[in-house]
Amino acid sequence: MIERFLRRTAGLALIAFAAVLALVVATRLAGWENTLAGRKSVQPTSLDELAAGAVAFWVITIVGLCWHRRRLPMWRVWARWAAFPGVFMAVFHSVQIAGDHDRPIGWAIGAGLIVVCWALSELVVLVTTRPVTSSLARSKLEIPFPTRGLKARLCVREDRLVLDSLASRRKRSRDVVAVPWTAMRSIELVQIEQEMVCQVIIYTDGDVGKPRTFDVPPGPALHVIGTARELLIPVTEKVGAEALAMVQTRSAGVELVERPLWSSNRRARKQRDQPRAAQSEYRTDSRPYILCLVGAFLLMPLYMLTMITLSLVTGSPELQEDWGTTGGLDKGAQVVVAGLGLVAVGFCYLAYRFCFKNFLEFMETQDRIEAFPEPPPPPPKTGTAPGSSKKKKR
Q1: For the whole model, what pTM was predicted?
Q2: Does an H or E element contain 368, and which?
Q3: On the CB side of 227, how many CA atoms lie within 13 Å of its CA?
Q4: CA–CA gap between residue 240 and residue 32 (Å, rounded)
């Protein structure tokens, strides 16, 4: 427990350091550019002003880290999100310094900052997942392992083994092939004597799966047999032994389930009852993040109400000027705030009902499709129209 806490704390500290470092460099470059131009700043240049502009990115980063609190390989993505505002402003001022003032060092500073922030994001994953200890093996954290000669990455999650993105290293949240513990019949480290080909089914367009193949060169490989998939994953001897031990630790005591429990998922049942031509969402490369954006838009009244409250509670002159609460709220403003509160409640319900809830149900169905590469069976033919029933004879 202590080790996991320390690892996560170190990872979060590196993310915060990357974000602050980028802002500090951007602030220094902005001041230097103004000095070279011999003018006063016409854009935000102080650390506080730049930080205020980066709040939205940091809020998204915090939400992403909470959502992926156990998926440590995704922390590198959120580290880059946190550093992006500072890196963007730093590169912007570096281009001005190099182009407008003939100082080539500007290019070097901008490129160097990008490299440093990128390296810090990779270091976040290394700190949180390496070395692989017995404490990590017993935890619920996702641990990535490199493969041998594949674009995909092998990940051991809390409840499944995952081979992600056979298409590209840049899309490792897409084309996921999974074998959950409830479907895993066996896993062993074997030696491949001659080159072989492994084929998996990926759903990328509707309810018709497409085969995707990859070469398995001679050498050690993990042979995974599930109720719906069979994988042959080339790895090194060390990686194979570590991954095998972790899978055995996490899958110990889990009972094998012969078929996926499609009937327990409301969204899957709804799609199952539709005509096959209408079943177009069985995809392992689909992530409806647009639902989260719509939900965030619906939370705007709540954000406005929160900022108005903060301006009154903190007494900040800047906030009060921005939100029109200087001198307190008159009766008209009180009516507006009360109405805003009612709207916020209604919009919060809409965001939950039609965005966040649907997103969670979609992702649950995605997990099932990735593990069992076939849509649920069509409803049985009863010879009667849907909703009808036979009359009882008297």
Answers
A1: 0.76
A2: helix 357-371
A3: 17
A4: 52
